[in-house]
């Protein structure tokens, strides 16, 4: 984009923290949600053009974890930035960096997902994997919430409301996928019962993503937590299926999945992604989910729900408007990343 220029080239402290992604127009780099977004990008490994976007974030995370015993969690004073919305090229607000350490832990901001590069660049993938293992070991050894260490700066913007246990199991699941080492299955078995939110998935709570991902990874394993994981994954599906007697979400009259809170499309998109992944698992195992009575969730039905949400977001809705900026003939032109006042039909 020729109208975009360099920004925040002075994000250099003890280490060079130039790069990464801003959370929004306030130009703050919040590593907690950035890591989740990058991991979700990495799940799209069949889209080769996504590799550059992934690598841009991964290079930043390599810098943020380059000093042993420290993990940088944020760049930018959120209060100063949030009160001064401006083009990133013109930014002149303080660029303070915040880190967690042994003495001030933050297990949530330690992430691991390097497997995507193994097909394209083995050396780079190995480097990412080695760093991921070190950061995971650090996060597990020095447990604690970054709310306690950095709460004055990360809250109320990106507090961790679900606890750090899900991030540790999430990291172990990805490391098992990357290494096939049984010690990560043992870790999952030991810690999976700490997860309580069977119906939540997003930048804060990784619980459902863990259940869906791990259920696929453990198909042929002897893990003793497999029944617990599968049951929670099935409960999640039934909590979303509109005809299910245990449905926990709402649908607009136009068909959009809706959950309480702001930025609703984050729920519609992440749940759609998990439905697509779990549909593949169900097809592979020739399984349907019994949601009670005569209500069964087949792989075909899960894909139908997923397709309906994506189509709605891209314009198949009563307003005939795409909610993806730049896609289609009609889309929002004056946007904010967490606008909560759009009326959905």
From TrEMBL:
Q: State a single Gene Ontology molecular function.
A: cellulase activity
Q: What is its EC number?
A: 3.2.1.4
**All copies of domain Glycoside hydrolase family, residue ranges:** 2-337
Q: Which UniProt keywords apply?
A: Carbohydrate metabolism, Cellulose degradation, Glycosidase, Hydrolase, Polysaccharide degradation
Entry's Gene Ontology BP terms: cellulose catabolic process
The record lists the catalysed reaction(s) as: Endohydrolysis of (1->4)-beta-D-glucosidic linkages in cellulose, lichenin and cereal beta-D-glucans
Q: What is this protein called?
A: cellulase
Q: Which organism is it from?
A: Glycine max (Soybean)
